[in-house]
Design brief:
It is elongated, with a radius of gyration of 29 Å. Helices cover 56% and strands 13% of the residues. It is built from nine helices and seven strands, in the order ααααβααββαβββαβα. The chain folds into two domains: 94 residues; 154 residues, Alpha-Beta Plaits, CATH 3.30.70. By secondary structure, the protein is an alpha+beta fold. It starts with 14 loop residues before the first helix and ends in a 6-residue tail after the last helix.
Length: 281
């Protein structure tokens, strides 16, 4: 970006490496913040170049003051004040860069259409919650939510209306969960809802709440009221159960809900090895 070289001392913040990686990442080429961030980095490096030039000037003035006496002291102090001003400006630029980096990080974990956490973020959170549940022994449940007849929505109403329907369903799902739950776009017309500390005894109520929040009232999409429903597969993690096997059980439950008529939920029964655990001793 510029010929300037950043400091290599221990005071250098790791922020710059992250910014350079994000700017070089092809996945960020279309990010709306990439252009402003590139310009800001260029301006920042320009300020570093100015600082470097003024530092060299100040060094020459120091030598001149020693060699020629106090006559150059006034000019030196003026250059020093200018240098201090540039340092303050540089500090402000670093603060702006940190804020932009945080914004880019947030955007990289979001689905552009719905604003929900994307699949990458959902997978990280899923693994985190799975590990926490296995260590603590606390219940952990998930729901896979799929919009019914979504292909028909696209075919009948058009893809623009289909996108609006996806965003509207996402908003209702997100509004119906608890603060520590998470609703993410899993892919296509499918959503993943993480339900930490949700026991099997209350899971049907949680699943019905999610189903009803979509089916209870029509959506206003494209200036018309349109009815949308969802099908759900839900299940609770069993102690010691592998995450892949757990997800497969819940996905199978979603398939059953679709097969049995849609606009319903199906509970995922625990696998056979968890139904009849071996007797102790």
């Amino acid at each position: 970006m510029s010929g300037a070289t950043l400091p290599t001392s221990g005071e250098e913040p790791p922020l710059f490496e992250r910014i350079e990686e994000l700017l070089a990442d092809p996945a960020q080429q279309d990010n709306p913040l990439r252009g402003p961030l590139t310009e800001l980095m260029a301006a920042f490096y320009d300020q570093l170049n100015q600082m470097d030039r003024i530092t060299r000037i100040s060094d020459r003035y120091q030598a001149a003051e020693r060699a020629r006496g106090a006559g150059h002291a006034l000019n030196y102090r003026e250059q020093l004040r200018r240098l201090e001003k540039i340092v303050r400006i540089s500090d402000r630029y670093q603060g702006m860069l940190r804020e932009l980096n945080q914004r880019l990080e947030w955007l990289s974990n979001r689905d552009a259409l719905t604003g929900l956490p994307n699949r990458r973020h959902a997978l990280a959170r899923l693994n985190e919650e799975h590990g926490r549940a296995q260590r603590s022994g606390k219940p952990f449940a998930i729901a896979l939510v799929d919009i019914d007849h979504f292909k028909g929505i696209n075919d009948s109403w058009g893809h623009e209306v289909g996108d609006q329907a996806l965003a509207a369903v996402a908003a209702r799902l997100a509004a119906s969960i608890r603060e520590y739950d998470m609703c993410a776009r899993w892919g296509g017309e499918e959503f993943l809802v993480l339900l930490p500390e949700t026991a099997a005894s209350v899971l049907p109520d949680s699943a019905e709440r999610l189903r009803a929040c979509i089916a209870a009232d029509p959506f206003v999409i494209g200036e018309r009221q349109r009815t949308v429903t969802v099908s759900l597969g839900v299940g609770c993690l069993q102690p010691g159960e592998d995450l892949t096997a757990f997800m497969k059980r819940v996905d199978d439950a979603l398939y059953r809900a679709k097969h049995k008529g849609r606009n319903r939920f199906e509970l995922s029964a625990p696998p056979a090895e968890f139904d009849n655990p071996p007797a102790a001793g």
